[in-house]
Amino acid sequence: MKEILESREFKELASKRNRVAGFLTFLQLLIYFGFIFVLAFKKEILSQKIGEGLTVGIPIGIAIIVISWILTGVYVYWANGFYDRAVEEIKDRLRR
């Protein structure tokens, strides 16, 4: 296990994982806090009525929740598809 953790390939892979996770986290925070800032400073934008008892803010809020699910799915897809496979390849190479 120590050999795997100290290998150059695994460190590069872990660095790539951190970049992907960091980017997705940044994107999620940007979207979320963008919504909060608009709500705090330009609430008239989100309070515009688009239907009976429905304002612009409600579908945007729902979209933010859906986007967070999608971003989580992107990470899971990437981790299960690329990251896990790459870890197994590194383990196989180091076992030989």
From TrEMBL:
<dbReference type="Pfam" id="PF04341">
    <property type="entry name" value="DUF485"/>
</dbReference>
<dbReference type="GO" id="GO:0005886">
    <property type="term" value="C:plasma membrane"/>
</dbReference>
<feature type="transmembrane region" description="Helical">
    <location>
        <begin position="20"/>
        <end position="41"/>
    </location>
</feature>
<feature type="transmembrane region" description="Helical">
    <location>
        <begin position="53"/>
        <end position="78"/>
    </location>
</feature>
<dbReference type="InterPro" id="IPR052959">
    <property type="entry name" value="Inner_membrane_assoc"/>
</dbReference>
<keyword id="KW-0472">Membrane</keyword>
<keyword id="KW-0812">Transmembrane</keyword>
<dbReference type="InterPro" id="IPR007436">
    <property type="entry name" value="DUF485"/>
</dbReference>
<protein>
    <recommendedName>
        <fullName>DUF485 domain-containing protein</fullName>
    </recommendedName>
</protein>
<keyword id="KW-1133">Transmembrane helix</keyword>
